[in-house]
Design a protein that fits this description.
The chain is an alpha+beta fold and about 230 residues long. It has 2 domains: about 160 residues; about 60 residues, no CATH class. It is about 30% helix and about 10% strand. Strand 4 and strand 5 form a beta hairpin. It is globular.
């Protein structure tokens, strides 16, 4: 089975950035970085939709990645997928584990895009929007703890961009509200359930940035009730 490590994630992020496709880590690996234990079957990235033309061939030419060997047996087949379908995916060697691409407009439509790739070396200060941080940031992400996910990256081979906690919580609530009447809503609802303990964990880095509104939405769903939005929406 293909090994999914911080080094592999960083290498893939560097490949995408070098091709002119700035990327943000997403999915199961991102949950683990935030301390949420989640089985990792895929390494997922979000890129600007205008950069998919650069991102796709970059992955196609990357080492140790292969095109889908059996679309019917693939975890992203319509019959098997348990998450929002990516616009493109490759497999890690001959395993069922994958590397996927999502366009920004599909996941983060309400947030500004990253339009510039990160430098390939040697810049200690990186200007990122307030909703983003680096996977190696011990100030913004939890350490590895027993019974939790991997926490912040401990190897800094290449900077990997991730969502901060308050942004991650809002993204999944918005995905749930958008998709709750569709099959994809089950994925967002499951992720909301995994993230719910974060809203009352004051020791988590970034917990003070979670808005009262987002906390209220999570508690509403945790109580088995449905979120009712006013005319102004979120």
């Amino acid at each position: 089975m293909a090994d999914i490590s911080e080094s592999l994630v960083a290498s893939l992020a560097e490949t995408l950035d070098a091709a002119g496709a700035p990327c943000i880590l997403w999915g199961q690996f991102l949950l683990n970085v935030h301390g949420i234990p989640s089985t990792i079957g895929s390494i997922d990235f979000i890129v600007p939709e205008s950069r998919l033309a650069e991102a796709i061939p970059a992955l196609e030419n990357a080492r140790n990645l292969a095109h889908c060997p059996d679309k019917n047996a693939c975890p992203w087949s319509p019959q098997r997928r348990k998450a929002i379908e990516p616009v493109f995916h490759m497999h890690l060697g001959d395993s069922a584990r994958t590397v996927t691409l999502y366009p920004h407009c599909q996941i983060l439509w309400f947030l500004p895009q990253m339009n510039s790739s990160l430098p390939s070396s040697g810049q200690p200060q990186l200007e990122l929007p307030q909703h983003l941080t680096l996977a190696s940031s011990s100030a913004d992400l939890p350490p590895q703890r027993p019974g939790h996910g991997s926490g912040f990256f401990t190897t800094v081979e290449y900077p990997v961009v991730v969502l901060r906690l308050h942004a991650l919580l809002e993204v999944y609530i918005r995905l749930y509200l958008r998709d709750r009447k569709r099959r994809d809503g089950a994925y967002a609802r499951h992720s909301v359930k995994l993230l719910t303990p974060c809203i009352d964990d004051e020791e988590l880095p970034g917990s003070r940035e979670i808005s009262d509104r987002i906390k209220r939405y999570y508690k509403t769903l945790a109580n088995g009730d449905e979120i009712i939005l006013g005319r102004s929406g979120m």
